[in-house]
Amino acid sequence: MEATCRLFLCARCRKQVLICRHCDRGQIYCADGCAKIARSHSLREAGRRYQQSRQGRFKQAKRIRRFRLRKQNVTHQGSESVADNDLLPANSVKVGTPVVLSRQSRPADTRQCHFCGASCSEFVRYSFLHRRRVPTIIKIDRKGTKHDDSP
User: Is this prediction's pTM over 0.90?
Assistant: First the structure.
């Protein structure tokens, strides 16, 4: 039996993505590396905001001061290094036909998970699967408790 799947748009590249219920952990990005790119962008923005704050400006100034103390100032230019035979002869590189890499063509009617490649059912969800809440068992209050005095 084919697994059910969820269809969503990647939050970064807006590509339609199918994900089976076994791989589904609430992803909003496709498997093509959009999550890593979005994370690095988010970290860069957070760093930019921090460096604009008062504490961030002071820490950055302190870090720059330490760097300038460590840096060795060079007052004279060094001599240029001469590389012998840095040019290749014209016939040393063989030019071949470029190799075109393409994905394997799939029939249009098959649906596969974007993450694991498992085949999915033709019926797709647009929302997350919600876990069923298990009702709590109500304890029955029996007559008499351990603190009651019994004759």
Answer: no
> How far is the C-alpha of 31 from the C-alpha of 36, rounded, in Å?
10
Residues 111 and 5: beta-carbon distance below 8 Å: yes
Other Cβ atoms less than 10 A from the Cβ of 69: the count is 7
Averaged pLDDT of the chain: 77
Token pair, residue 46, equals: 């957070």
Separation of alpha carbons 44 and 83, rounded Å: 39
Q: Which residues are CB-neighbours of 57 under 8 A, at least 6 positions away?
A: 51
Structure tokens given for 106: 């799939």
From residue 127, alpha-carbon distances to 4, 21, 28, 124 in Å are: 12, 11, 11, 9
Tokens 């709590």 belong to residue: 136
The two three-digit tokens of residue 99, written as one number: 């190799």
